[in-house]
Specification:
The chain is an alpha/beta fold. The protein folds into three domains: 8-19 and 204-300, Cobalt-precorrin-4 Transmethylase, domain 1 (3-Layer(aba) Sandwich), CATH 3.40.1010.20; 21-104, Rossmann fold, CATH 3.40.50; 108-190, 4-hydroxy-3-methylbut-2-enyl diphosphate reductase, catalytic domain (Cobalt-precorrin-4 Transmethylase, domain 1). Helix content is 39%, strand content 19%. It has eleven helices and twelve strands. β9, α9 (232-243) and β10 form a beta-alpha-beta unit. The longest helix is centred in the N-terminal third of the chain and has 17 residues, at 21-37. The mean pLDDT is 96.
């Protein structure tokens, strides 16, 4: 049992925070598939990057695998919110598998952009993090070698393209707005005729959560971001707070809080990545209550009301 220290701490909570519409939809898809088809339901890759969520679904009968090779015939399979290369649904169709695509609609938008650029013959540049599931899925929408990945302005500087006058760029949806702006600036300087996305690829949830964390960092001496180490949007939130001059740390659960790190702090900000459920935020707040006398204040920057439709395959009455 943790004893209260008697110390007073002001805790600022970011709003918006936590689940975005794409994550919420993806989790609902797995839950509905379990209800409709029974267990097991296979899921290719983590449905979202959060172990708490994944383990909760595993307890209900979801089986997470790395590839379709691990999925037996005759069972349903769900593709993760991050999207998959087009070869994956092609393979599923070849095997006559029952599959549900939980790709976030905003990621699917980037997939369509990549395919359109390939069709028009453009040189395609993608801004993103090598190896991230979303990047692998997006680059897999076109033929091998058709997309060049850049992660930094230096990568742009080193680029050589065959057709400098027909270039287009796309981006991962969960990037740092500030870092991406620097890379886009470098691209436009090097390729003045480069085609922008018709609508920014970085998703509304990433933009909103980064804006809320900037507001937190203006008030707090330290910021805790609840999220998984493999969650790109969560890691970007840590960086955003740090760039504002506020010390920041990524934690997965309340048990990960480094209380010594907070020893000299009297104001703390808390937010959560787009794949972290609200129950983990509540858990962290409860941990602060057990240790300190806290004054809680919500910092609201924008209201979100976006919802994405669920696949008809799961919602229709058979």
């Amino acid at each position: 049992m943790t004893e209260k220290t008697g110390k007073k701490i002001k805790v600022y909570i970011a709003s918006p925070r936590g689940f975005c519409a794409g994550v919420d939809r993806a989790i609902q898809i797995v839950e509905l598939a379990l209800e409709k088809y029974g267990t097991p339901v296979y899921v290719r890759h983590e449905i979202v990057h959060n172990r708490f969520v994944v383990e909760g679904l595993q307890r209900r009968g979801a089986v997470f695998v790395d590839s379709l090779d691990q999925v037996p015939d005759g069972v349903p399979v769900v593709f993760s919110a991050h999207g998959v290369p087009k070869s994956v649904p092609e393979e599923a169709r070849r095997r006559n598998m029952l599959y549900v695509d939980a790709t976030c609609p905003l990621v699917s938008k980037v997939h369509r952009e990549a395919a359109a650029h390939e069709k028009s013959g453009s040189e395609i540049i993608m801004i993103g993090h090598a190896g991230h599931a979303e990047v692998v899925g997006t680059m897999g929408q076109v033929a091998d070698g058709r997309i060049t990945l850049v992660e930094t302005p230096q990568d742009v500087k080193n680029l050589t393209l065959k057709d400098r006058d027909n270039v287009a760029y796309i981006t991962q949806t969960t990037l740092s707005l500030d870092d991406t702006a620097d890379i886009i600036g470098a691209l436009k300087q090097k390729f003045p005729a480069i085609h922008d996305p018709k609508k920014e690829d970085i998703c509304y949830a990433t933009t909103n959560r980064q804006g809320a964390v900037k507001a937190l960092a203006e008030k707090a001496e330290a910021v805790l971001i609840i999220g998984a180490p493999n969650s790109s949007n969560s890691r970007r939130l840590v960086e955003v707070a740090g760039r504002q001059g506020c010390k920041s740390m990524l934690i997965q659960r309340a048990r990960d809080i480094d209380w010594d790190w907070l020893q000299d702090v009297s104001t703390v900000g808390i937010s959560a990545g787009a794949s972290a459920p609200e129950v983990l935020v509540e858990e962290v707040i409860a941990a602060f209550r057990r240790r300190y006398d806290i004054h809680l204040e919500t910092i609201s920057t924008v209201r979100e009301n976006i919802r994405f439709k669920l696949p008809a395959l799961l919602t229709r009455q058979d």
